[in-house]
């Protein structure tokens, strides 16, 4: 029954990924056909900035709060919530000030959207804390319900606006921000069931001890995952960014199941009582095979139909899609590594490979973008860095295994062994 429960969780998570991806594809088609490449690029500019900042500015604190949650009220969760609000507020102030410069050549509503995102940022950390608690406690149903809100909410609203003939770029941005507010409320409700006591210095020390190494890897991963689009906001045109965003959306259709396999690696590792290294390797192989098979289908079937589905502005994206599919396979493999090392409490192993990748990607995008960054150039850098990161983590993993022959030696006996909660 335990094994069946694991697969039910993977299938449920893959179902959420597939449904949100499908809704995103439909809404992306509607935006593309209604607003063109310029409109899609303007919407992406707001969404990508808030997304990257949400991953970046909280220094791994929400993840640490979830990891240290004991399914009871605890001061460390209170500390995580308070710290997240402060970090989000600082980032929000900076974004508010820089919004006009970031928006640059974009329509005026992009500046307003970025400033609305700045106001939202202090509270996003509360939502993330709640989500990480559900994830760490393996409450997969509740976790999926919460995380689907900012993923599917905007797409559902866009479909409704298009049906009513009211779809505009500002309206699309508003729906995204509104969905984030609903997510914050839901995550905060979960968080309040785990907070306790006043802020304590010892709780803060324990929090940062876990959070900072995790953030050192996760921050670079977050930036790398969206750095291509983030740099294109500044170094490309709204039209080119819009075309590239459509290619990214199409490629995302290939990975719901492989990504679900990687996501479930974290709670599986924390709760496993057997050989976690064998589990890690088997899961990584499974993710790669699923990603490669789905990517092949997308390349052969979906890529030739882009012009028909999205409109004439988006013809000629086939080469970009092929490159991004290859990158996706390596990224899905690495996602399993992220979940595994976080699950055994050794996230610092990811730091060097992650930052090497981020540095290579930033340098590549800036060098190629001196005369204006194209979608194919951005995709090529993304693929190269995905390969570099997997090679680097393989070296780091082998070195760590030579130093620590068993996972228990690696973790000091602290990994795994926790009971599951199925809700």
TrEMBL record:
The chain crosses the membrane at residues 12-31, 43-64, 76-99, 119-136, 148-167, 173-192, 287-310, 316-336, 348-369, 375-396. It is found in: Cell membrane. This is Polysaccharide biosynthesis protein. It is a multi-pass membrane protein. InterPro entries: Poly_Biosynth_Transport. One of its GO terms (cellular component) is plasma membrane. The keyword Isomerase does not apply. Keywords: Cell membrane, Membrane, Transmembrane, Transmembrane helix. It holds the Pfam family Polysacc_synt_3. PANTHER family: O-ANTIGEN TRANSPORTER-RELATED (PTHR30250:SF11), PST FAMILY PREDICTED COLANIC ACID TRANSPORTER (PTHR30250). Residues 403-423 are annotated as: Disordered. It comes from Rhodococcoides trifolii.
